[in-house]
Design goal:
- The protein is built from five helices and 15 strands.
- By secondary structure, it is an alpha+beta fold.
- The longest helix has 18 residues.
């Protein structure tokens, strides 16, 4: 038995020296064209058998990145799918409109306002008009504008029509929708628009008067009723929304 180096020698006769076992590295053997060490099993490919450097990888990655940028990766994500909804509203002509099925097959830019709004809503409506003119100038067809009021108690179809006519809005591809509170809540909640009335008062003629705090948002819907973009209505980024509309054509 080999003794441990940590043991102290005894006073008795010295043990015979054991012969050292020399572990010589054996000659490498060849396996499938690869040199293999007999002692540690390391495989070291010969210079002539090394795999060729993959110089095509950088070019391939660049092509993949370019393809991603100009095709699938540039597509707008689906933020919310409204296609399963079925709510009835009235447009400015008091005609029934089934939302969103009435706009299936069209790209929709949808805004949310109330006609008594003193600041954000007029800016939003003005931006929608400017966007409509921009799309007409760019000859982009098949885009429908929808403005929904979240104050249906005061914003009846006739009030919405007067609101639009004063601003010279073209009704050919633009609907102003008013509906029940429940239907309005369902749609606005789905797209992330929140609103609540502030303290109310009565005007001199006895009419209820109040302002509404609300989200400043408009959304872009594709031809299948899915929300694909969200924007500030009062501070609309025209370049971005036009680019997004073109990507849905």
């Amino acid at each position: 038995m080999l003794r441990s180096n940590s043991l102290q020698p005894s006073s008795g006769p010295k043990p015979r020296r054991t012969s050292r076992i020399s572990l010589r590295r054996g000659r490498p053997m060849r396996h499938n064209g690869t040199l293999v060490s007999r002692t540690n099993g390391d495989r070291r490919p010969e210079a002539g058998n090394r795999p060729p450097a993959s110089g095509f990888r950088p070019a391939f990655l660049l092509l993949l990145l370019a393809s991603c940028l100009f095709t699938g990766c540039s597509r707008l994500p689906v933020l919310e799918d409204l296609s399963g909804m079925n709510y009835t509203f009235m447009n400015q002509d008091s005609a029934g409109v089934s939302f969103p099925s009435a706009y299936r097959g069209k790209i929709v830019v949808m805004s949310f306002i109330y006609t008594h709004c003193p600041d954000i809503c007029p800016l939003t409506t003005n931006n929608m008009q400017h966007l409509q003119d921009t799309l007409t100038a760019d000859k982009l067809k098949g885009v429908e504008f929808v403005t929904m009021t979240f104050d249906p108690n005061r914003d009846t179809p006739s009030v919405l029509k007067e609101y639009a006519e004063i601003r010279g809005i073209k009704f050919g591809d633009w609907d102003f929708l008013s509906g029940s509170g429940a239907n309005t809540d369902s749609v606005t909640y789905a797209v992330g628009v929140r609103y609540f009335p502030n303290d109310s008062t009565y005007s001199k003629n006895g009419r209820l008067s109040y302002y509404i705090t609300h989200t400043d948002k408009c959304v872009l819907m594709d031809r299948d009723g899915r929300v694909r973009g969200e924007y500030s209505g009062s501070q609309l980024d025209f370049r971005k929304i036009v680019k997004d509309i073109k990507s849905l054509e």
